[in-house]
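Sequence in, structure out.
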Amino acid sequence: MTMKQCLVLTAVIYGLAPIQTTALTTQGAHHQGYLERARSVVQARVDLVDPNDLEKGSHSHIAACLAADQHLEWASARLIRFLENPRGDMFWMFPMTSIAYLGKDKLSEEAHAALRHAWKTYVPLRGDTENHWAMYYGSLFLMAEYWPDLPGSEWYNGKSSEENLEEAREYLIWWMDITTSMGQGEYDCTHYIGEYLIPMLHLAAWAEDPEMRLRGEMMVDWILSDFAIDSLNGLYVGAHARTDDRQVLETWYGLSTFFAWLYFGNTPEPPPSWGIFTAVAAEYYHLPEVLYKIATDRSQPYLSRELKRTRERWRFTEERFKRVYKTTYVTEDYAVGSDQGGLLQPIQQHSWDVTWAVDDPRGVHNTMFSINPYWSTKEMQMYFSEYPDFMPPAVTNQGKPTYMAEDTFLGGSDYEQVFQDLDTIVALYHMSEEANHKHIHGFFSKDLTRLEEDDSGWIFAQGGNTYLAYFPMAAYEWRPLENGGKRLYSPHAKNGTIIQAASAAEFKSWDAFRQAMRALPLEISMDAQPRVWMKTLRGNEVFFEYDGIPMVNGKQVDYAAWPLFESPFMEAAPGSRKLTLRHGDMERVLDFDHVERIDRVIPRDENEFNVNDIRP
């Protein structure tokens, strides 16, 4: 056995023990590239500042100037102006926290006094969502450490520094424990990933408590890993608890993609949005090489399964949290991802899609999916505690304008059920008489290079190097989209969509792909419930009936045994609070039970990368 095989690195506790092994080093070229990109973002924001103009500049400009050690007099003066009218609640708290720590030795006495006064007199709302509480309590913890030993009379909530510190600590540890045991509630969000990543990075950067600092570092690893495994060339793929009207179609345009660019450098740079508050604290986080490899290696296809949970549900259910079963299949040409459908999140859920790789994703709609547009007071009452009568229309005035629209491409549905087998999706719909919209529609992108309707019932399409076969289970018509492309509109209460993806390189020609799909056995029924029996392109027999348990090759899917994470790169069991990251001979274990991070080099005989080459 070689020295390399014998090498086992001890846990890196509290960030005090540096990792020296070349294979595991976090100080390599990829880490340096991340730091350089972060500095470029900060400097770009600084360059927008006119130091002679105190009327312009946001909290992000102030933070950037403090991080870059430039325009410091302007930063202090502008902060004083900015604090004359605090607003934004928890979205105000984390920028002010970063400014406080970045400016600890750089802000003027007057600016420090204005900051202290604001935290005494401005009352930020705690909010009602998981991301709100992460920002609120992450910020409160750090500011209670920043100003220790103050009585309740000096804080906006009447609690002392010690009381605020303990309340914040209690919630943050509870949230970390439930996230690492049964998954996030607002899981895999394309924008709200930032509202978790930023407060955790700030803990990693500035917490004086060594355990909380390490917890922050480990949660940054966890969140980035959760994103990395479900990404293709930096684009977040598959199911999301929350996304938005633009990014659900233009998958590149969003905060998650900014993080892919910042940390992994594998996509063009999008606007940073809140991401500036990760860039200003970038030097406090060391990018693990194993995480970088997981995010960027698509040399072999792989299947990933994940367990998540819904947000807290207050009505119409006996389960506070419902389990969410995610599946993602990723190749170098495309990714297919899904959850099981249903009302898993209010307002902005996205249950499934196919995403194909493109050379430049900017402005490109490289995705395909179908949905039943859905809205209801039931959904509002299930997840929110406000009065139900005004909730649906109120939501449309709170940054979710398409919530009630019949042509929206965003949102979950109480009438949708989804099953995925590798790169095959079956989505079934059965709308009741109470449904506001009794139709489904499929998204067909302006960027498809082929689109052909076949006498067999299949619709064949191509995006990039990906062949797509879409089978609508009920009659439909085409409707044009303003942004280009088409909407497949099917006004039938019993309905369904089947999609099969494949790489163009698997077939001798386009005609060969179409012939292969036509030859697959397929039986559908719309009698009592929508039902599908088919043989997939990968040779598996799939049977799926609405309100039934899916079957593959005659065996029911065992949802009770669903892993927290399972793929060639990531492994975690439900309830374990432990995640193992692995790539090649590199391994990192995030153990929240013992609050330790363990890195080691894996001996070759323990590290046979094998995805069973699941393509036939």
